[in-house]
Specification:
The protein has about 300 residues and is mostly helical. Helix content is about 70%, strand content about 5%. The protein has eleven helices and four strands, in the order H-H-H-H-E-E-E-H-H-H-H-E-H-H-H. The chain has a two-stranded antiparallel ribbon with strand order 1-4. A two-stranded antiparallel sheet has the order 2-3. The protein starts with a helix and ends in a 14-residue tail after the last helix.
Length: about 300
Amino acid sequence: MTKLLQTIVDGLGVGSTYALLALGISLIFGVMHLVNFAHGELITVGAYTSYFFFLHGGSWWWMPFVIIASAMLASVATELVAFRWVRNSSPFTLLLTSFALERLSHALWQIFVSPKQRAFPKPSWVFNQFKIAGVSFEVMDVVTIAVTAATLVLTAVIFKRTLFGISVRGAAEDFDAARLMGVRANRVISGAFAFAGFLAGVAACLILMRSPAAEPSMGSDWLLKAVIAAVIGGLGSFTGAVVGGLVLGLLETLTRAYLPDLADGWDKFSTAVVFVLIALFFVVRPDGIFKVSHAERV
């Protein structure tokens, strides 16, 4: 029972990060019907921003604000520089643009910084542990869950109680109808990208506190897991993105905890089992846990 509780807490910690990233992906998909494969690069931007600031006396007391701000700026910049010009193009063109941005990001970091990993200090308390009823908990897991919960509450308030949130939800349901009701397309889409950048920035803070290092392709692995989480929950569903992230995190930690130890191949084997389970899930429910309906142009 002790092992199970510890594994569940670990899974919720990992799944919370997936949930934040998946929520950003679902947000952009809802507004533009785009699966943004450049979304993971916001983590890379936050990592290199941290690296540069730590070279000049940075501190974790204020670094999270810098990481979040850099991710938001980068997200808005990608919309202005790249996606705005192809907004009315085919879904394939949008998808190809996101792939191009991801590849370009990798190349620019390799050329202008370094293809090698660049490490920087981590907070001293990250791997500290405490016990409750004989069960050991890692401080970072609890912090991750708490920060994610607070972020999700903030997100719910913004999208249910503010004019911006209502506009985004209306655009996600039927963009043409929302524009006829006075919603400004540029403002809504830029705001959606900014908020997706905020969510990615929070996720980047949690990731970098555990693994304080920057490398050109670090966002790709997290992006893959986030896309899978969004699809599990139902692409375009905000609630589904959160549920999908938590489900994926729990699946990963439970399989790693209870599958046989295969030495060097253990991690790959457990990952393969997770993907097989997900594939079986999509056979039963291809639309994800929460089915989302969108108006289509005719």
